[in-house]
Amino acid sequence: MAAKNSPAPSTKIGLHQIFWQFLVVGAISFGGGIVAYLKELLVTRDHWVDSDEFIVMLSISQTMPGLNSVNIAILMGDRLRGALGAWVAAIGLLLPGALIVLAIGFLYGANSDHPMANHVLGGIAAAAAALLTTVTWNLGERTFKKRKSLVLLVLTFVLMSLVKWPLYLVLGIVLPLGLFIYRPSASRQSGAPQ
User: Fold this and answer.
1) How far apart are alpha carbons 160 and 155 in whole angstroms?
2) What does the buried/exposed string (b/e) look like for 159-179 if buried means 16 or more CB atoms within 10 Å of the residue's CB?
3) How far apart are CA 75 and CA 8, in angstroms?
4) Are 127 and 29 contacting, i.e. CB atoms less than 8 angstroms apart?
5) pTM of the predicted protein model
6) 114 — phi, psi (to 5°)?
7) Do residues 20 and 73 touch, judged by C-beta distance below 8 A?
8) Cβ neighbours of residue 171 under 8 Å, at least 6 residues apart?
9) Strand runs (DSSP E) across the chain, as ranges?
10) 3-class SS shares of the chain: helix, strand, coil, % to 5
């Protein structure tokens, strides 16, 4: 079922458009902010998916190995242009960061004994934590208002941060609970309006 803001099936997004859009996101996003930039690109600006579809892609991406942003790029590229679109989106997203990290790694390797190096890295880490907090709030704002979702969120936080369980154990508990809590009701299964 196509979303109302998604491109019509007859509209074919070009590979160059996919590459360019993800290249720009990869070049201008920093720290945890990349997911927010992806949402801005895919949902708000280009309307390639709606907000609910983006949250589904993000949820799938978080349960898979690898970086969430790369997983989203692969899912989006595949949705738009199949396997080739997935490759193009992933390369576009990763290319700027890879080049920047190589350059910074070279500079850091040559200047790692400089006293300012650790101060600069500490400042970058603080900015990345702030960006991640902002992204979490923006993506989860609707979810935080629902009691069921809030219970799952708090349970996940407690198990991961306080109990220090590994992700696979937390998923083994929270995933079945989430599926049970959000199982389709009898009215949805029979097609009755809600």
Assistant:
1) 8
2) beeeeebeeeebbeebeeebe
3) 18
4) no
5) 0.59
6) -70, 135
7) no
8) 63
9) none
10) 75, 0, 25
Instruction: With beta carbons less than 8 A apart as the criterion, state whether 39 and 50 touch.
Output: no
9-22 per-position pLDDT tens digit: 447 889 999 999 99
Dihedral sign for Cα atoms in the order 147, 149, 150, 152: positive
Cα three-residue angle 11-13-15, rounded to 5 degrees: 155
Q: Are 130 and 30 a contacting pair, CB within 8 Å?
A: no
Tokens of 5: 């803001």
Tokens in use for 97?
């960061």
What radius of gyration do the chain's Cα atoms show? 20
Q: What is the DSSP string of 82-111?
A: HHHHHHHHHHHHHHHHHHHHHHHHHHHHHH
First to last CA, the chain: 19
User: Residue 8 has which token pair?
Assistant: 């019509």
pLDDT digits (tens, 9 = 90+) for 175-189: 899 888 888 876 555
- What token pair was written down for 155? 């349970």
Amino acid letter for position 68: N
Q: What is the 3-state secondary structure (H, E, C) of 41-69?
A: HHHHHCCCCCHHHHHHHHHHHHCCCCCHH
